[in-house]
Amino acid sequence: MASETAALLAKLVAIKSVNPMGRALDPDLIHEARMTDFLESWFRERGLACRRDSVAPGRDNLIARYDAPGTSRLILFDVHQDTVPVDGMTIDPFDPVIEGGRLHGRGSCDVKGSMAAMMTAFERLARERPQGSASVALVFTVDEEFTHMGATRLAESRLGASLAVVAEPTALDLVDCHKGALRWLIRTKGTACHSSNPGQGANAIYRMAAVVRVLEEHARALEAGAPDPALGPPTLSVGRIKGGQSVNIVPDECTIEVDRRLVPGETVLDAMGAVRAALDHALGRPDWLEFEKPWVSMPALESAAGAFLRPLQAAIAHATGRQPTIRGVPFGTDAGPLGESGVPCVVFGPGDIAQAHTKDEWIDLEQVDQAALAYYQIALELGR
Asked: Under CATH, what is the fold of the domain 180-298?
């Protein structure tokens, strides 16, 4: 029989909270409003106070707070409400099927398994009010999968937290650092003409081909450089290209989308500046080349949890029976903006990142139950 935490997870997976990630998708699938409404009702049904913080129209962070007796230390639990889109899934994304100890569905691993576990731990704290525990602010953020608007808003207030525990699938290990992400669009301009006489125009796709060759060389140079001890080298990848109107028209515009992963110590300005310098050096500062403002600008997370790591390990080991590894990861999380604001952060949760965003996404329910115990134990351990 499934646990109460697993039953809660099934309800969460059935709620559509897809992040459109800049695309025009079915309005019945997208954004977090349905999830936020459910969460608010769940807390109020249990007599637990919560409040909304509007981040964008129809997109609200939700904040619940447990004030423990006789303690001033506040721990922030952060978990995002949104999921990636469901294109190409081979299972019904919103039918939470349980089979072989796994629950399947979009968001089960990233990151509603952690959400159910955090909610279970929070409700237990509020019900039992154990002596000596830390206070907990549980925050459900919006837009983690695209531009991190919710985490950026949360980072502006910090809520007075001494430490943030950010939910992501880490296989119950502790993550104390990760790469940041920078994504922006590069455009080449040309002059359109009939393809029967292409010399009368200027082909924006050909110009972009030259740009891509330079970026490939720049990416190789980054990977050959001195790596971060925990995270490896910074990386760059061109993920999308678009250009032209018709095969018989010389294209007057072409665009690419660039993904640049940052390591601690790198800044957005430095990373973009290095790309622009490489292109200008190779192509002679062309006037047909344009950079757009980044739509993702997420800082890397530097290891700053320090003295918190040992009690965190003890709490997780108590709950799981296994000493968690402390490690870095190449993907970004809400911990990036929170860490940049000065809050020490760790990332921790059930599930394996290899199952996130997949066509048959799933999570191990035993890990979800262990995570619920671990989040509760973290509040106890860090209140001492």
From this structure: Alpha-Beta Plaits (3.30.70)
